[in-house]
Design a protein that fits this description.
With 344 residues, the protein is an alpha/beta fold. The chain contains twelve helices and 15 strands. The structure holds magnesium ion (MG). Magnesium ion (MG) binds next to loops.
Length: 344
């Protein structure tokens, strides 16, 4: 398989601040895998939370070749995925990019979009939430007005101004909110805040405590009036049995778990443990977002808005209609280059 790649910087519509830090641009990598006359596209959006950064990915990609038995037949996608996951050079987001590109090629060979290949009903797409990152109350109110087309807001918390943010949102709208603390609270603070949020039409709380505080999360879950969803506590299917008792659901992201194949394993493992499932993302382009969206008919909550947070997405794929993502009907992931207006 021939691997080509490109590093790109995407510009954020607003500076994106969460409990861990702030940024106004984000680096992402597009990979192209070619076999014979077909090419598949994938994307890696590195996350510093999981030990990645753009320079590291660039260093790895410069020396990466994909050869050996699993890579000669794209229909051996499970063996390819196994080989990628066993390759100690690769990080989760790079595995994700390559796995997405493989599925993109496979879909093109068969001539079907991925959701059809997997037997999924596109009529079962949950409504997607739109993320409001941490900011001053005035900016929050402006962002809430901009988010008018979305029926559900995902709100970032955990930097100390939590109640001011919620009050700013509630001054504008009574839409349901989903709250993400990104590990920003301690045990007692979390319980107090969750009890307060429960009275303000919040649906659930994502990762209230640091990932290494599993005992505290058990304690919190016994008392929390809202469901708790694991994000930083749950990277791959292997984490699910260990954390299942401390959370009500998990947030699956392609960049954390290493691609569509592992995301599918996570979905089935989570269901076997009675957990609800959210499908989330990093700040990503339409490539990774559209790839993930093909799995959305299998999940309960969708938070696939990373591509909407940037101004210069070089691709187009999923579209939005009445708050719901609409999957493209083209084979594979179904993305295509977007023709951006020329500057000036
Ligand atoms: Mg999260």
């Amino acid at each position: 398989m021939i691997l080509e790649w490109k590093r790109t910087s995407l510009t954020l519509r607003h500076p994106f601040t969460i409990a861990r830090g702030s940024k106004s641009t984000t680096d992402t990598f597009f990979v192209k895998l070619s076999t014979n006359d077909l090419a598949g596209i994938g994307e890696a959006a590195p996350s510093t939370r999981y030990g990645e950064n753009a320079d590291l990915l660039e260093k790895i990609l410069k020396f990466l070749t994909l050869d050996g038995a699993p890579f000669t037949d794209i229909f051996h996608i499970e063996s390819i995925d196994e080989a990628l996951r066993a390759d100690s050079r690769l990080t989760p987001s790079l595995c994700a990019a390559l796995n997405i590109a493989c599925w993109d090629i496979l879909g093109q060979i068969i001539g079907q979009p991925l959701y059809r290949l997997w037997g999924l009903d596109p009529g079962r797409m949950p409504v997607t939430s739109f993320t409001i990152a941490i900011d001053t109350p005035d900016v929050i109110r402006r962002k809430v007005r901009e988010a008018e087309p979305y029926h559900i807001l995902k709100v970032k918390q955990g930097l100390g101004n939590d109640r001011a943010i919620i009050e700013a949102i509630r001054a504008e709208t009574d839409k349901p909110i989903r709250v993400d603390a990104n590990e920003g609270w301690d045990r007692d603070e979390a319980l107090t805040q969750i009890e307060w949020l429960a009275e303000r039409n919040a649906e659930y709380v994502e990762q209230p405590l640091p990932a290494d505080r599993l005992d505290d999360t058990h304690w919190l879950r016994e008392r929390s009036p809202l469901p708790l969803i694991a994000d930083e506590s749950c990277l791959t299917s292997g984490d699910i049995p260990r954390i299942a008792g401390a959370f009500d659901g998990i947030n699956i992201k392609l960049m954390k778990c290493g691609g569509l194949s592992e995301a599918m394993r996570m979905i089935h493992t989570a269901r076997a443990h009675g957990l609800s499932i959210m499908l989330g993302c990093m700040v990503e382009s339409s490539v990774a977002i559209t790839a993930a969206a093909h799995l959305a008919p299998l999940v309960d909550y969708v938070d696939l808005d990373g591509h909407l947070l940037v101004t210069d997405d070089p691709y187009e794929g999923v579209t939005l209609e009445d708050g719901r993502l609409i999957l493209p009907d083209r084979p594979g992931i179904g993305i295509r280059p977007r023709h951006l207006p020329l500057p000036g």
